[in-house]
Amino acid sequence: MGEIEPKVRVRNSRVLIVGAGIAGPTLAFWLARHGFTPTVVERSRQVRGGGQAIDVHGRAVDVLTKMGLVDAARAARTGVRGMDFVNARGRTLARTTAFSLTGGVAGGSGIELMRTDLAALLLDSTRATTEYVYGDHPVEIEQTGTAVTVGFASGSVREFDLVVGADGIRSATRSIAFPADSYRLHRLGRYIAIGEVPNFLGYDRWETFYAAGSDRRVCYFAGAGATRVMFTKTDPDLDVEQYDDEGLRALLRSHFADDGWQTGRLLDEVTGTPDFYFDDLRQVHMDSWHLGRVALVGDAGYCASPASGLGTTLAIVGAYVLAGELAAAHGDHHLAFARYDRRLRPFVADCQERARRGGNLYVTRPRFWLQMQQIRLSNLPLLRRVMSGLAAGGKERICMGITFPDDEKTPSPIP
Fold this sequence. Notes:
The chain is of the alpha/beta class. It contains 13 helices and 20 strands. It has a single domain, classed as 3-Layer(bba) Sandwich (FAD/NAD(P)-binding domain). Helices cover 33% and strands 27% of the residues. Strand 6 (99-100) and strand 7 form a beta hairpin. Helix 1 (23-33) runs parallel beside helix 9 (311-328), helix 2 packs across helix 9 (311-328) and helix 11 runs antiparallel to helix 12.
């Protein structure tokens, strides 16, 4: 881990962070580094498992490097060597080792690893400097001129100087502390379902995509240490809130039941496991990510959706920028929150726009044809790099498009 900078006396040092996913512990790490006292509360009673492979790109890799975690993150990489597209009979239509649709360009600076592995690294790096409270969550947030009083579901009441919601797209912090008309949830008209399955195809660090039709796709992903399947389908009218867990499993079976390849067994496996995730793709849009002494970070404030392929990068970068602006302002939250909002907003806009344009999850016939050509052409030495970059959809360009507070010789101007 890098050298610890001397702590500077700061105002508003007691910070409650709601959510122990990716953004929350990252923020806790940097707040503690800058002299703040973070407390993280997590609704779950233990570290959440499950999830899909995630990507860390661009400036987020820089953040992990500054944290001294980049080597451990690279050691935990999925190690996926390439990908192919197959038809209903399992015949390979196109194959490449130049890139994968989930992990990006082979040999690039990005890091693909399982979400649980990254979460564990972040947790381990903050245990000594952060108070963690599991199995609880805020039910009341009351601001005064000098502090925030938080009432928890457990019945306890505590006072903090600042509160930061890092509790995901269904953020309780956002719904409690922000007016209902201050945020908008934009549906992208598509859903994903993910679960762990046995590696019954015997893959070695490989992913296979099967497009059953112009509105749906299946991905079988066998990384180092985990095999998962992802189903994705266009369904503009779906409201997941109308279904319970078993209803969502039945819905998935009905949508993919008659498809070919290995879909039947994959449906049996994924709907039969407790490690089952199903959600529609949404984005969070807000004109401001802060109100008084409360701010939001990551999906809680600006979810781009998994279609962007940049959610983890957004969480890490957002947390780093927020902590950096609080440090630069010596705890002046009015100044720091405004600078955070202004600095991060163009970056968020680019990530969300990538998802709205489809990312790598949409399967329209023209897009499917284009991806097939990119795969085939990437096998030609002269076109390998160009085709790989096109297939990545501009991820690296977007992920380098932000300046950090500590990149500048002088602080960002007062708004």
